Every structure is written in C-alpha cells, then in structure tokens.
Amino acid sequence: MNKDKVGLSVAIAIALLAGAARAQTEPATPAAPAAAPPAVAAPAAPAAEGVPSSPLPPPVAAAPASGAAAPVAPDADASGWQAKLYGFAEIDGMYDTTQSYGPASNNVLLARPGSYEGSHPRSQLTINNSLAGVRLVAPDVHAGNSNIHTTGQIEVDFFGAQPTDATEATIFTTPALRLRLFYVRLETPAVDVLVGQYHDLFAWGGQGFYQNSVAFLGVAGEIYHRNPQVRLSKTWIAGNAQVDLAVAGVRPVQRDSAVPDLQGGLKLAWNGWRGAGAQGFGRPELRPLAIGVSGLARRFAVAEFLTNPGDPKIAYGWGLAVNAFVPVIGARSATDRGNALSLTGEFTTGTGTPDLYTGLTGGALFPLLPDPSGNITPPPLYRPNIDSGIVTYDANGNLKTIDWRAFVIGLQYYLPIGGGRVWIAATYSRLESANILALTPEASRGGVFIKQQYFDGSLFVTLTPAVQLGLSFQQTQQTFGDSPFNGAHPEGKNMRSEAGLRFFF
Amino acid sequence: MGNPPTAFGPVLRVALLALAGVALGGLGCQNDTGCAEDGTPCGGDPTGTWTLNDACRDPAFAAPLQPTYVDQPVAQARQPVAPTTSSDWCSAVAINAQGLSSFVFPHDTLSVSGTDSQVTYASDGTFQAVIHTAGQGEIDLSASCLQRFGVAVTCDALAAELTDYAARPRTVPSFTCSDSPGEQAGCAYYYTYSGIQCADNGSQGCACRYGVDFAGTFNGKWSMAGTQLVHFDAKKMLPTQADYCVGGGGSTLSLWGHDRMSLFDEPGLRTLKLQRMP
Fold first, then answer.
1. ipTM of the complex
2. Do B80 and A34 touch (CB under 8 A)?
C-alpha cells in the first residue's frame, strides 16, 4: 500500500466516523432511555446485522509512515503505520409471507396469525448491509526482548438509528451510518488488551462461531452483539493446541445500574484439525476445531414501580454460553475446500440477557401502573430506567429478570465444484423462555411469545473471487402466550426467501 | 482475494438456476390463513332467519389500550414519549369494606358457539345478527392487589364479590343492555361472567376462573351487490361486505368476510355457516 492509499484510508475513516457521530448523537440531556418502540412501522426489525469482519486485523502490506496522522511513541520504530480499507457492497432482496420483519429475520415478535400483518406479504430490497472499515497497524514498540504490537479497527455499516419520523423511503435510500467496531488492541508479552467497541466476549463473538447463512446475523436464537469494553486476554500455544482466556468489563446493559457488566471466557482450539467456515454471508476461511465457554454477570438497579420512585430495586442477571466449531471433514485450504463439511453450535442460557440476542424482547414490557379509581388525570405513569424486555415487575411488585434459553446448530458443506466455490448451509435454532408468561399480566399474554423455532437453508456461490451470490429460505415460528378458544397457544409463522449479492473489496 | 481465475461457466449456471428457483419458490410461499374462504360465493336470497351451524374465527388479539397516553401533554422535542406498557396486574380491581367497585375480567379470544347465534335478514331491508361467543377466563390476583385498600379479603369472599359485581347492570355508555335479541341497536357490548371461583394461589393471593359469554348484537340495513351482502351498521359505522352463498336448496347460508373483513364487528370472525330456521 502506498502513501496515497494510506492517506485515502485515513480520510475515509475520518469521514465515516464523522457521519456515524452525526447519525448517532445522544440527546444532550441525560434522559432516561425511551422504552417506546420506533414510531415507524415499516422496517420494524431493529438492528439487522452484517457479517462480522475478521476477528482481529492481520498485518497488512508494508506502508510508509503517514506522517501527521500517526501519534509517534517515543520508542517507536521507523517502519510507520499501516492501514487497509476493506468492506463490501451488498444488495439483498427478500420476500416474506408476513409483514413482521425489517431487513433481518431475527427475534422480533411475529405478526399474529389471522391479523392483517400476519396474512399479507412484504418484499424489501436493501443495501443497508453494505459495510466499510479500516484496519490500522501502528509501529511496534520494543519492550525489552519483545514487542508491543498495536492494532485497531474501525467499521461501519448502514443500519444506524433513524429518527422516529423517518419514512420508509428514507430508511432504505438514505440510511444512517452505524458504528460497528472501533477499538485498539495492544498485544504485549504479558497480556493482550482490547479497548473499544468489539463483539461481546459472551459467546465468543467474532471468533468463528457465528452461523453461515444469507440471513443477516444474528440469526434467530443466536447471541450476536457488540459493546464498548475493556478486555484482557491471554493466549497460550503449545504445538497445535491453543488456549485463550479472556475477561472483560463491558458497558452496563443499564447505565443506571452503575456497575459494568462482567464477561469472561475460555476457548480451546486445535490447529491441527481445520475446516472451512464462513460466518453469515462472509467468505469462507480456514478455521480450527474450537470450543468456547463463556459467561456474564450483570446488575440491575431499576426505579421502583411507582410514579415517583424512591430507591431502586436490585436484581442480577447471568448467562452461560457454550460454542463449538467442528470441522467434520477438513479442508485443505481456504480456497481449496471442496467436500469440506463443518458444524457450528451454540447453547446459551441465562436471565436478564435478551439484549444479546438480536431484536429479542419476546414482547415483554413493564406493566401498567394501577389506576384503581379509573379517573386519575393524567393517568399515573411509570418511567422505567432500563430498556424493555430485560426485567419487569411481577404482580407483587418484585423486580424479576426474564429467562431465555436457546440452542443453534448449523452445518455447511462445500460442494466439490470449483474447489468448493459452491456450498450449502443449514441452520436450526430454538429459543424459549420459562418465565415470560408468568411475568406478563393475563390480558397482555397474546403480545408475548414463549417459544421460537427457526430453520434456514442457504446456497452460496463464489461467482468471482470478489463477488459472491447467496440464496436462502428461512422460516420462523413463534408460539404466543395466550390461549384463544381455551385451546392451544396460537403460532405465528413467517417464511422468507432471500437473495443477496456481495462485492468484497 | 487469492482465488485463481477459473472457468466460472458451471458455477454461473448453478447460480442462475438457483436464483430462478428461489425467486419462483419464494413468491409461491404463502402463510396458511386459518380461516380462508372455503367456498365459492354464489349469491341467492338470504331473506329469513338463520342459526349457527359452524364458524371460523382467527385468534385475534388486541393489546390493551394504553391509558398512559390519555390526557398526556404532547411530547416535546427530545422528551421521551410515554413508554408502552403491558396491562395492569391487578386488572383495575378496587375492593374495600364497601365491596368491589371496579374490576376488568380478562379473557382471550372467545369461541363462536351456541344455537342462539342468529342472523335475520328481513324483507324490509333490515338485518339483525346476534353472535354468541363464549369461553373461560382466569386471573391470578396477587396479595398486593387485594390488600392495597387496607382490607383483608379471602378468596371465597372475593369470588362472592366478583359474582355480585358481574351481576350488576352496566351501561355502554348510556344504554342499559340486556341479552335479548330485540336489543336496541346501541347496545352491542354485553358480557356475562358466570361460575366464578377463586382459590388460594399459594402466595396470599387468589387465582380466579370464570366463564365468559358475549352476545354481540349487530343491527342495521342490508343490501345485495352480486354475490356480496353489504351491512350498514345502525351505529353509523362504515358498511362492511360479506361474500355469501345460499345453498342446499335455500337451506344453508355461508358468509365469508369479503377480503378477510371481520363479520359483524367480531374481531377475527371470518366465516359463518348458517342453516335456515324452520
């Protein structure tokens, strides 16, 4: 990469960040988070996701120092900074049998059977999943006999928060930027430090465990989340064995809890057994057999269920995740992967953790404050200081966390055509809550789901080394909490056909 | 980008075939509609009185209205709107030493049932539909709901209070309702609750169950338009259309909500199969 390209990359990075900052400006006043859903109904699904970039930036081609843009450490060597622009332009078209989803078919509440939205189709065409980023490598710093290696990454896509009065046309044709990744990573002889926004350590995000599907990540039932964090990690390598241990202090899910979330994880990998693995709509890479175990703990301090609350009510959430990537039939290389077969799996359980599944609340809301006289004007109003769907108050006014448990399993098989340039993948997931029904007042149970099943099948074709086509069928089924006609819980279903084309650069 | 250039002809053919398959298959996908129109509208003379033979109703659900929005000031810029909530755990229960003064009986979508569901199309151009729906409701009233007015209520006493409360006549909003088919047009909402039983829920509250019946009366004028019946609601709501077919030599009448409209103001009611009264 020459000096001009480095300069161009930095300029693009600055421009992207300026746009992201403008698009995601926080209100000036530190008001409580608004729990109300967006007023615009059309693209209802929040947070559709692109495909994660590589977990950590590989060294890029040598480049001369960019001069003024580089903060130079006193003992920095003279090799200069390196920068690499990357990303993809993508277009996705999808047809749904209901009007439940925005671009992503994730965990949002489906339209009920028999309703207008549940009986009529929707089609969308979007480029919002396109993505751009810059990987940066700073000059190594010598520390005794070893180096401190410093890297960073900036990544944005076009699923930024839209104003509540945004129109359908605005959302699809002039989308807002969204900051996905923005971090620095210091690799030292003692420990590696990552500071900034990155995939959550819970479920080892960005480490090769995501499902392979044309559906936007996270697929239904899958942990897929990024957060500002400070992460300490250590990697041990002995022969083909690799052990990663990490702990992270993460943005608290509720800022008024006043305590950061804590996440930790252990990952084991065997580099002698490698297979082909693609995440989302991404390109396949050679990945080792790996298993990850991770957990999280968090605290909630929620305003008492009163119009004028006194002290908060305290509750705690936790989560456990087990992830695996198994190359059932290995691949010779990332580009010679014909006949390779790989399996991905994820099991998660926890309470007070739905925010880590894309778009998941299950429909859970805080209850209505009682108004027994029926004539208080205006009616009493409770303003929760936490996003909806994570905790709620039960019938006795106790703060309760909402439980969720899920497993996701996926297979990807690379056909012996052109070295595996054509491959198929399938995903199945199941997600359920043991207590969302008991934590929802009787009259509102038709607005929550207690169980969700999802499966998809995808076909991928590498048309050229830079262009990839994906086709997919996805079906989601949800079981609602009410019992109409005094019978079984009703089930909503959405079927989606999706085609995507991606140009990697 | 390390893939060497290769012949992409076969790959491209696979891709194009698959794309065509997904496009055709995808557009062919359609959700099951629980209450699809299961016959062909054929018209005929619907004049007469018809009783219910069968019905199909979708599991309609309407989230409780958000009273928090009532009389709230208009949201100012950068001020959060009132948060969306679920319903009240206590279902508006208000009970004190004088008894129960307020309660809402929650229930899920009711089944259309009973031979007393009748539809009459008179030759003078008026019609009357009495649609009887029934089912069970339940609620778990917590100790904090029952004790917040400073009285201790046993579950038996609560059941008695609920029974007494359910028997009181109510007005909507200014009509006194009865369950008579001759009900005046404005009285379209009449629920009855029966068999109310409450038992200890194990945490000092009461779990109550009850039967729910609803006889909705829908009156007005009717007219024919081909194989459609147009119902003009006496309450001055907009007219609704139903596809219909008088069959069986004039002994049966099938009604389907036109374009999946709900029949007779009953949410989710798509199909009525009726037979002529002797």
1. 0.84
2. yes
